[in-house]
Amino acid sequence: MTANTEKILFVDDDPAVLLSVGDQLRMEGYEVLSADSGDQAMQVLRTIAPDLIILDISMPGMSGLAFLKKISGPSGKPRYPVLVFTARANMGHFFSETTVDGFLAKTSDPSKLLEEVRRILLKYSKASLPESGEGKHRRLMIIENEPRLAARLRSFFSAAGYETTILESTATLVESLQAKIPHVILLKEILPNVTGNTIAANIAPFTTASGISVILYDTSGLHPAEAKFPNVDRFVTSNNPPDLLKAVATVLGSRA
Description:
elongated, 2 domains, alpha/beta, 20% strand, five-stranded parallel beta sheet, Rossmann fold, single chain
């Protein structure tokens, strides 16, 4: 298990659905934990706090409705974001009047599930932003050499309102900085033939003079979470988009 992606707890008693939908979510970069019953899902919740629960309703033993009640507070609101995913399409109206974050019939197009997952995760990421740190009109430069992650980060931050530029290498970094000055640079630590903290040191005269904040992120485990680097405003041991969004919001909020 890694801490680098959003954690989704998928609760369904159908092994084929757990496998097919679980694989679809993993292909999108999510970490998926499976449970085939409400009781097993309760066991999982004792060890992890998921970013989202995808929940079937009709299950033997503890039903989805009973599970929802178990994980809800006195107000009736679940303690975790919940997307109800069920074959009982006629329950849509019932769940529209509850505090779950989404409802989707299993007969829906598979792409719709991914859209709902992204929507809900983004909703909670944006809820964590301070008002002065919202992404609107904020320029962000991301230096990430893995195309799949780079595309995912671009999509995530663009949806959050950031004007996002992706560089997959540092070859054009100086020219890009001169062309359009970002408010924040998200900089990967382990890049081909160079480290992010070295890049941060090399461009320090430019970033300092221009008031650019630099966030370094790393999932290699080479540096402890409390590591400090010269010319780096914040260090994050994750490439999870919500974690990086929180870091960006924090540095922008401190400048507001």
